[in-house]
Structures are given as C-alpha cells and as structure tokens.
Write a structure and sequence with these properties.
The complex is a heterotrimer of chains A (311), B (194) and C (342). Chain A has 311 residues and is an alpha/beta fold. Chain A has two domains: 120 residues, Response regulator (Rossmann fold), CATH 3.40.50; 131 residues, Rossmann fold (3-Layer(aba) Sandwich), CATH 3.40.50. Chain A contains ten helices and 14 strands. Chain B has 194 residues and is of the alpha/beta class. Chain B has a single domain, classed as Beta Barrel (OB fold (Dihydrolipoamide Acetyltransferase, E2P)), CATH 2.40.50.140. Chain B has five helices and seven strands. The longest helix of chain B is centred in the last third of the chain and has 20 residues. Chain B is elongated and about 100 Å long. The two termini of chain C are 20 Å apart. In chain C, α3 packs across α12, α4 packs antiparallel against α5 and α5 runs antiparallel to α10. Chain C is mainly α. Helix content of chain C is 73%, strand content 4%. Chain C has a two-stranded antiparallel ribbon. In chain C, strands 3-4 form a two-stranded antiparallel ribbon. Chains in contact: A-B, A-C, B-C. Chains A and C meet through α1, β2, α3, α4 and α6 of A and α2, α3, α10, α12 and α13 of C.
C-alpha cells in the first residue's frame, strides 16, 4: 500500500506541472539540446515572448534526433498546438515532420536553420551561417597574415550546419595557398571534445598557428586547451556569438566569432506566429535571412546574451 | 544437416530474388533516368551578370549624396576619385587600393577590392535579380555570391591588369559598398582609369 | 484471510505493468484534454512501434542472459545503407546497380541478421562478454553509418520512377488510418510470441537463459541458441532502420542514437529478468507502451524534458523493485504452502 501512495504522490507532482493556466493557445518550441547556451536562449526567449503575447508555451529538445523531432511534432499536432517554432534537426531529415504539421494545419515557423524545401513552413528565419562563417574566416585569414598551418574542429557531422560552416570557412581560406590545413576532426559541437581534440592535435601538429571551429562551444574548448598549453600564438575562431566565446575574445585568447542574432530571430518568429494565428497574416517572404555579425575584440563589448547593441 | 540445407535454400532464394530486382546502368548516367541536375552556381551567375551589373550601374548613387553611416550591408554607389595606395597581399591574390572620392571631406577611408579574391557578399546583396528564395538553401545562396564575385573579376577587374602604376591616377568607379566603423569597402562593378 | 490478501496482491503484482499502463492512460486523459482521442492513441502506437520492435529482439537476447547495445546503431546504419542504395545505387566498376525497394528491404534485413550473427559469434566462440561485444559493434555501426555519406543525409529516399526504386515511403505511410510501422510491430509480435511460447526453439531459449549448464547437459546447443537471439535482435533493428527512414523521408546517420536504452527499458518494464531465464513477449509489448505513453503524455502536458528523464528513470527503478518484491513474495508463499501441507 505504501508503494501505491508513492505512485499517487508522483502522479500528483506531474499533474501540478501539467495544468497550466488557460491561454490563447499552445505554442510548441522545439530546439536542439539546451546544453548549448545558444539553444537555451532560443527556448528562454521563445517561451518569454509567447507567454507575453498570451500563449501557453511548451519547450522541448529533440537532441538533434530527427525521429524524436518527428515525435514531438506529432505530439504538438495531437495537443492541438496553434503554432510550432522549431530549430530543426537537419535540412532534409526535418522536411517530413514539417509536412506532417502543415497537413494537420499547424503552422510551422523555423528558426536558425532552414530546411531544403520551400512552401511548407510559414516562415524560415535563418541565421546566415554561410555569410557569418565567411565573414569571421576573413578576419581570421587576416589575423593569420594569409599563411601558416591550421586545424579544423568540425561539429556533428550529420548536422547540415556543420558543413555549411566548414564549406564557407574553406571558401575563404582555401583561396590562399599558403594556408594549409593539417588536421580536421569532429568534436561534435562539444566543449569537452573541443578541448581534448585540441590537446591531441597540438601533440601531433605543434606547428599549427590557427584553429577554426564550427561553433563557439568547441572554440572555447580549443581556446582553453591553447591557453593551458601556453600556445597563445594560436588564432582560434568560432561561430555563434556566445558570452563564453566573447570572454575569450576580450582576453585576446580567441580572434573572434560570428554572432547569430538568435534572440532577435526567435522573437521575430514568435511575433510572426502570433500575427498568423490572430488573422492569418503571413510574412512577406518565407525565407528570411538574418545576417551574422563578425565579432572581434574591436566590437566584442557590444555583445551580451546573443544580443548585439551598437554603442 | 537439415538446418544447413534450409539455410542454403533461403540464401539461394534471396540471391535469386535480389539479382532479379535490379537495374544496372552506366556509372554517372543517373540524370538520364531521373532528370535531376546538380546545382552549379556559376551557371546562374554567368547568365545573370549582365542584368546585375546593369541594375547596379543604373541604381548607383553618388557617394557624396548619401549618409555613409547608413551603408550597412550594402548599397550601389559611384564616384570619381584619386588612387592613393595600391596594396598586394597573399601573393597577389588579395589586391586592394585606397582612394579619395572627389569632393569628399569626411574621415572615412575607402578601400576598393581588386581581386583576384573578393571578400564579402556585397554584389549579391545589392542586386535584386535573384532572391534567397530562388535557391534551395544558404549554401547555394553563398555559392552564388562567390560566383558573382569571380564573374566580376573576369569581366571587370582582371582585364585592367592593375598594379602599382595606378597610384595617383584618377578613376571612375561604380560598385557595391559596405561600411564597418570608419572603413568603407567597395566591390567594383564598373571601373575606368583616366 | 491473510492468505487471500496476499493472493490478491500477487495477482495485482503479476499484472502490474498493465495496471500501470491503464492508470497512466487515465491520468493523461485528465491531464491533457486531447490525449484520449483516436489520433493521439494512433500516434502513441506509432512511436511505441519504434522502440517496441527493438524490444522484441531485445527480449530474446535478455532471456538468454545477454544484452544487445548495438541495435540503435544498426538502425542508423541500415537506414543509411538503404538510403544510399536508393539515392546513389551501388557502384562497382563502371556500372551502377539500382535495386528495387523489395530487394533493398530483403538486403537490409540480411544486413541486420549479419550484424547479429557477428555479435553472436564473437560472444559465443571468442567468449567475449555480450556487453563488451555489442558496445564495440555499437560504435562500429555508428561509425560506418556516418562514413557512408561522410555525415550527410540521404534525402531522396522516395526513389525515382526512372530507376524503378520508388516505394520505401510506404513503410512510413498510413493504411486504413494505421501507420505501417504498427502493422509490422503487430506481425512481428505475433511471430515472436509463437516462437517463444509454442516452439521447441522458444523452450531452448528459456532453458539456456535459466541454466546454461543443465540446458547443455540436456542436449541443447546453447551457443547456437544464443547466436540466434542476436540474429533476431539484428533482424528487428533492421526493420526499425527501414521504418524510421521511411517515416522521416530521409536517412540520417545519427538516427537511433540511444534507442537501445529505450528497448532495454521496455523489456525490463515488461518483466524480463536481466539475469535471464524468464520473460514474455506480451510483457515487453506492455512495457513498450508504458514508455511510449509516458513520453508522449508528458510531452503533451508540457512537462520539461529534464523532468521527463527523471520520471522515466524513476519508473524503471520502481518496476524492478516491484519485480523483486514479487519474487520474494512468491518464494515466501511457496514456503508457506509447503509448511501448511506438512
């Protein structure tokens, strides 16, 4: 009997979470794992904005698993959500989930990353990774003085953005024949792996003078590894614009990063969802590209919590 | 023994079935069967270049007529000016010149990109012939910007074979300008040396 | 009186997972207004099918006292191989081979069986612990899945009329309102239940799990039986690789990452003992539904993913604790009965 009462208490606890206040509708906010502050910002800003506009917001993570993402979309459909805001788990692998929602008349607003199909989502508000990567790569080749050996830390190789970023880094860097890549490793977007892979690369290729990283968490790991190895001559760049990276940039331990204005992007998405839910207003174009801002020590002071304010 | 016979029979059945269910074609000829063509940015930029350069030239405004702090991500501009200094970096792959536009009195510096590598996406961003929505994704969109830049090098800058001798000369320039801080960067679309 | 009471508790304990399932459904029906609808239940069944089919194979493995950690990676690898065969074909020399979808399904099921065979052979013939062997194949299969496309996704799994390889998406479609995966789950469940309960093979599997030595003494080829359970597990995982790819309309190398844990959880919830020797297919199916209902129910209630993980973990531990209690009670009752008869 005692055990039964434990179960009842546990269920009551779940119940307490379950009953939210009645709202203008439910908005699902689905993002990758919040262990990266970038995606945490998406959920935080998205929930805050949706709540402010009178919706009940439910935030989940698909952990970059397209199948879990599909399940979350289907749950949103069953839950009669009025809109889904999603930072998707792959440009091709996510199309089916969006198609499902559209078929069930649940409007989808994609943020940060796009999908390889137009005409499904109401809006795709995309951080211009291609431009951001090229912009910070240009700062980096300048800092490298157009020559030297370097290493690259890739993100999760099944993630579209991993290759968008890498290709665009290389679109700039590969035009300079004196810049030679001697190592390329995946650190799976992770700070710990960024640190350990950098340590290993420094052992194998002590001659490198630069490391390009697919995102800021890996770049912070790499920068820390360089600091610990007393290799402050190594030029590290990342991409995202997190406060952690900004701190390294300020200390001169990282050349820079490219800010994806994710707080702004998420707010725009919620606002457009609100307009669409209220009276069917669609944004002027489905695909909206929000440029990244190259952050170096010249302008790093303007960056805070993924928001850039010109001072 | 009986088990082994069943196993072999199943295996033979599978092989027979699968080999019956296959289409064999010559390597690389899939397009004939599917009608799918791979994306090639230079195919777009080649045919679009004429329209784009005409559009930028006709939209260009005199640099003294606009507020330079509002250049932002890019604007089509034109001016006549004097070349101050020609710089060549990265083994001649990154040539630039600084110029002073006629009649300009502010404290901005003007740098013109002269290839053969151009940074940024200014040309793509000021044109309206093609939109982001015309492409499948941002990778193709950025490849398009690169392709436009190499097109401009081929059509506009490379034929002029610019070197240090340009210093001190007067130029007529139309291009896409972007600004960051006190630095204005111009990617040329039309350039003549007087 | 006391005896009646403990018999009632016994009955309740035996059907505990099913009772928990019913309670969960009732609870979520109140907690989330749209939960108790045909659409939602169909959706839950579709999600359950993914873990459930993996859990069917896992049940056989765990009954023999083994474990198969490689199934999640097999899901990813099979998906990538199938997607690659459709999108790029198989190039040998100057020729490219495009298989029809039925041929691809057969080939992929063979691949699943083959990986299972390798697992089984290493475990029995080289005497490597199941946990280690399948941990190894888990990494190998995930690596191969990524290697197949260098991490990219195969998007054109719909196939092309001109190449004669259209049709894989049918595995992700609905027939008469029910997703194809649920049919596969139902059919495989029936086959699994018959295999385990109505055939000598099933009896051999239970015997090997219960006491390998005495099974061997009674003439059962224990190694063969064990190898077969891993082949079954690989076969089930290959089905999920195909179904998942069809449902997503894309083959993604990270697919199935961590799903082996859901399969193990479903199996354990269903009353299969981790030490082997006992377990039922129906229990596993109910266990898979408990996991599925908890996942979807909590999502629809807006419970954050962090709480979902905590609750899922608590439910699994609770299940095993109750399982243990039942065993103790059973032993006590048997002792009592013997004492009374004296």
């Amino acid at each position: 009997m005692k055990r039964l009462s434990v179960v009842v208490v546990a269920m009551a606890m779940v119940m307490a979470f379950a009953f939210g206040a009645y709202a203008a509708g439910i908005i699902y906010i689905i993002t990758p794992s919040t262990s990266n502050p970038f995606f945490g910002t998406e959920q935080r800003v998205g929930v805050a904005k949706a709540t402010e506009l009178g919706y009940e917001a439910k935030a989940f993570s698909h952990d970059d698993d397209a199948a879990i993402q599909l399940q979350l979309f289907e749950a949103a459909i069953s839950d009669k959500a009025v809109a889904i805001i999603c930072d998707n788990a792959g440009a091709d692998a996510s199309i089916e989930a969006v198609r499902k929602a559209v078929a069930a008349k649940v409007p989808v607003f994609l943020i940060d990353r796009e999908i390889n199909e137009a005409g499904l989502a109401i809006a795709q508000i995309v951080a211009d990774n291609a431009q951001g990567a090229a912009a910070i790569a240009e700062k980096w080749v300048e800092a490298m003085d157009y020559k030297g050996k370097y290493a690259e830390l890739l993100g999760l190789e099944s993630d579209t953005n991993c290759w968008v970023r890498s290709e665009n880094y290389h679109s700039v860097i590969d035009e300079y024949p004196d810049l030679e890549m001697v190592a390329q490793q995946s650190a799976n977007w992770s700070q710990t792996e960024g640190y350990s892979k950098t340590e290993a690369i420094l052992q194998a290729h002590p001659e490198i003078t630069g490391i390009i990283c697919g995102n800021d968490t890996m770049a912070c790991g790499a920068a820390q590894a360089c600091v610990d190895a007393k290799r402050t001559d190594i030029k590290v760049i990342g991409l995202d614009g997190s406060d952690d990276a900004a701190a390294y940039v300020k200390k001169g331990q990282m050349v820079g990063t490219a800010l994806q204005q994710i707080a702004r992007i998420t707010e725009i998405a919620v606002e457009q969802a609100d307009a669409y839910v209220k009276d069917g207003t669609k944004p002027a174009t489905e695909k909206q590209l929000v440029p990244c801002i190259a952050i170096t020590k010249d302008n790093v002071a303007n960056l805070s919590q993924f928001v850039y304010t010109e001072k | 023994m009986k088990g082994k016979i069943i196993f072999v029979v199943i295996l033979v059945a599978i092989v027979a079935f699968v080999s019956n269910q296959v289409l064999i074609i010559d390597k690389g000829t899939e397009g004939q069967y599917t009608g799918v063509v791979a994306f090639d940015a230079s195919a777009h930029s080649g045919s679009d270049w004429e329209k784009i350069s005409a559009e930028i030239i006709s939209n260009a405004v005199d640099i003294n007529a606009i507020n330079l702090s509002e250049l932002g991500a890019g604007k089509a501009i034109k001016f006549k000016g004097t070349v101050n200094e020609f710089t060549s970096k990265a083994g001649g792959k990154r040539n630039t010149m600084t110029v002073t536009p006629e009649g300009y009195t502010g404290n901005m510096t003007f740098t013109v990109q002269l290839g053969s590598i151009y940074s940024g996406t200014a040309i793509r961003d000021v044109q309206t012939v093609k939109q982001f929505g015309d492409f499948t994704n941002q990778t193709e969109w950025s490849q398009y910007a690169k392709a436009l830049n190499s097109q401009l090098d081929k059509e506009v800058v490379a034929p002029l074979a610019i070197n240090e001798s340009i210093q001190g000369k007067t130029i007529n320039l139309t291009g896409a300008a972007t600004a960051s801080g006190n630095a204005v960067t111009i990617t040329p679309v039309a350039l003549t040396i007087e | 009186m006391k005896k009646d009471n403990s018999q009632l508790i016994m009955t309740l304990l035996k059907g505990r997972t099913f009772i928990v399932l019913i309670l969960l459904i009732i609870f979520f029906s109140f907690a989330s207004p749209s939960f108790l609808s045909l659409n939602t239940l169909t959706m839950v069944a579709k999600h359950v099918a993914l873990y459930g089919i993996l859990a069917l194979g896992m049940t056989f493995v765990i009954i023999t006292g083994g474990i198969d950690l490689s199934v999640g990676s097999v899901v990813g690898l099979v998906g990538m191989l199938a997607g690659g065969l459709i999108q790029e074909g198989l190039t040998i020399g100057a020729k490219t081979y495009y298989f029809t979808v039925p041929a691809i399904v057969v080939l992929m099921l063979c691949i699943g069986c083959l990986i299972g065979l390798v697992n089984g052979l290493i475990i029995t013939k080289l005497n490597v612990a199941a946990f280690i062997t399948t941990l190894g194949t888990m990494y190998i299969c995930r690596g191969l899945a990524n290697l197949r496309s260098n991490g990219a996704t195969f998007a054109a799994i719909g196939g092309y009329e001109g190449l004669g390889n259209v049709g894989l998406k049918a595995l992700g479609a609905d027939f008469m309102g029910i997703p194809a995966g649920v049919y596969v789950f139902a059919i495989l469940s029936i086959i699994a239940a018959v295999l385990l309960n109505r055939t000598p093979t099933g009896w051999h599997i239970l015997a090997v799990g219960g006491n390998e030595k005495s099974a061997k003494l009674s003439g059962i080829k224990a190694d063969q039986v064990k190898i077969m359970t891993y082949v079954i597990s690989g076969f089930c995982a290959a089905w999920i690789g195909l179904i998942n790819t069809a449902q997503l309309s894309a083959a993604h190398p990270a697919s199935g990452d961590g799903w082996e844990m859901n399969a193990i959880a479903a199996t354990v919830l269903g009353g299969t003992s981790m030490s082997g020797g006992s377990g039922t297919i129906i229990g596993t199916i109910v266990g898979a539904f408990v996991i599925g209902v908890i996942n979807d129910g909590m999502t629809m209630c807006g419970v954050s993913e962090f709480w979902q993980k905590i609750i899922r973990g608590a439910v699994i531990i609770l299940a095993v604790v109750i399982d243990q209690t039942q065993r103790n009670l059973q032993a006590k009752m048997a002792l009592q009965a013997r004492n009374e008869s004296k």
